[in-house]
Write a structure and sequence with these properties.
Layout: E1 3-8, H1 16-31, E2 35-40, H2 46-57, H3 63-88, E3 92-95, E4 102-104, E5 113-116, H4 119-126, E6 130-134, E7 137-139, E8 145-147, H5 152-164, E9 168-173, E10 194-196, H6 197-205, H7 213-222, E11 226-230, E12 238-241, E13 253-257, E14 261-269, H8 274-284, E15 292-294, E16 301-308, H9 312-323, E17 328-332, E18 335-341, H10 351-361, E19 368-371, E20 375-381, H11 385-396
Parallel strand pairs: 1-2, 1-9, 2-6, 3-6, 9-11, 10-12
Antiparallel strand pairs: 4-5, 7-8, 11-12, 13-18, 14-16, 14-17, 15-16, 18-20, 19-20
Helix pairs in contact: 1-3, 2-3, 5-7, 6-7, 10-11
Length: 400
């Protein structure tokens, strides 16, 4: 009937019972007449356990050796799942990332996919085999193993779906789809039937953990229709696809991200090119900057405040202290970013004020604000993050 790519995360294959459950989902899809390629993550906390083992031996191990180690997690998963599918009685073969044709650059532990040569995948599909592929990994031009970073199995699945022109890419998780907020934290969180690529990309980037943002970018680029659904509860999930034409503005989700640090440069000299010097220095060290706020100059100085990931906060502070004289640099890691996402915000006045009102009524102070056509983000104290999400969610998505 079609070609379906299915991806299962670590929680979906965490133990023998769940591996057999995944095998039943896969074989049921196959028995309906579909060709099936399955992408699997490492079981449960295997990746974290491997990192811990490495740190016990050498906390500063070369990233090439980390990739050699971390790639083993997915190899275990694909072998066990293939054995389970074989037990059910369907033809199956497991492939490592390089066997499936994944070629990447050479940035170990955070590699990017350069291309996929799907010859082996196509050959196995032609034999009517279910193909089980190790996600999160590939090989570089030196024939060294590489891994794609956190969430890399999502990206692997979408890349395969794009290369094979699959009819659908299903991302199975431990939740039933994409929600307007984390259903474990917000009682009234609602599951969405569908969401656009752009909205899903913003949610993923802003802290929603249901999909990796790189996978959404790739799905949009190649027109891969995604479905996010539960591996534990067989009900329809959330479809991620191209936007339909609409005039109505809908808030699709409220997210929080605690992986944030604020770096403040106080009384920096107000001279031409100073911003370029600061941010080019950070860029050279691969430090990604998100929100930036600059004050008006006064007495020949100005303040510059920006946000980075929590780990990069102290690094950025140290770099800038070595670079800048006669100014104070402060790093605050006790902050969080809370965001709303929804298409059509730009043409619907009052959205920002409604969000700010909800925070005001909950006595939450806003430190920084960032906006785009489909999102509004605020930086607040980390301890207020959960209350902020609940208040803003209630304002835009009230109880039925």
């Amino acid at each position: 009937m079609g070609l379906i790519v299915q991806k299962f995360g670590g929680s979906s294959v965490a133990n023998a019972e769940r591996v057999m459950n995944v095998a039943r989902i896969v074989t049921d899809t196959y028995k309906q007449g579909n060709d099936v390629v399955v992408v699997v993550s490492a079981q449960g906390d295997t990746t974290d356990d491997l990192i811990e083992k490495a740190n016990e031996i050498n906390p500063n191990a070369h990233k090439r050796e980390m990739d050699q180690l971390l790639a083993a997690g997915e190899q275990i998963s694909i072998s066990l799942l293939a054995m389970a599918i074989e037990k059910i009685g369907c033809p199956v073969i497991s492939l490592l990332g390089w066997q499936a044709g994944f070629n990447t650059n050479s940035i170990h532990t955070a590699a990017r996919i350069k291309n996929i040569k799907p010859n082996r995948l196509q050959a196995e599909i032609a034999k009517h085999n279910i193909v089980v592929v190790a996600g999160f990994q590939g090989i570089n031009r030196y024939d060294d193993l590489t891994t794609l970073g956190r969430g890399g199995s999502d990206t692997s699945a979408v890349a395969i779906a794009a290369a094979l022109k699959a009819d659908k890419c299903q991302i199975f998780t431990d939740v039933e789809g994409v929600y307007t907020a984390d259903p474990r934290k917000v009682d009234n969180a609602k599951k969405l039937k569908e969401i656009t690529y752009d909205e899903m990309l913003e949610l993923a980037t802003l802290g929603a953990q249901v999909l990796n943002n790189r996978s959404v970018e790739m799905a949009k680029k190649y027109g891969v229709e995604l479905e996010v659904l539960s591996s534990l509860n067989p009900i329809p999930g959330t479809i991620v696809k191209e936007a339909a034409k609409m005039e109505k503005m809908l808030i699709r989700g409220v997210t929080k991200d605690k992986d944030v640090a604020l770096v403040s440069i106080l009384k920096v000299q107000d001279t031409p090119g100073i911003a370029f010097k600061i941010f080019s220095k950070l860029s050279a060290k691969n430090i990604n900057v998100d929100i930036i706020l600059q004050s008006f100059g006064r007495d020949g100085t100005k303040d510059i405040v920006f946000s980075v990931s929590k780990d990069n906060g102290p690094i950025a502070k140290e770099l800038l202290e070595d670079m800048l004289d006669n100014c104070e640099i402060v790093c605050n890691t006790d902050v969080a970013k809370v965001s709303i996402v929804g298409a059509g915000m730009e043409s619907h006045p009052g959205t920002a004020s409604k969000m700010f009102e909800a925070l005001y009524e909950t006595n939450i102070n806003i430190q920084m604000i960032s906006t785009s056509e489909i999102k509004i983000s605020v930086i607040i104290d980390a301890e207020d993050a959960d209350r902020a999400v609940s208040a803003v969610h209630k304002a835009f998505i009230p109880n039925d």
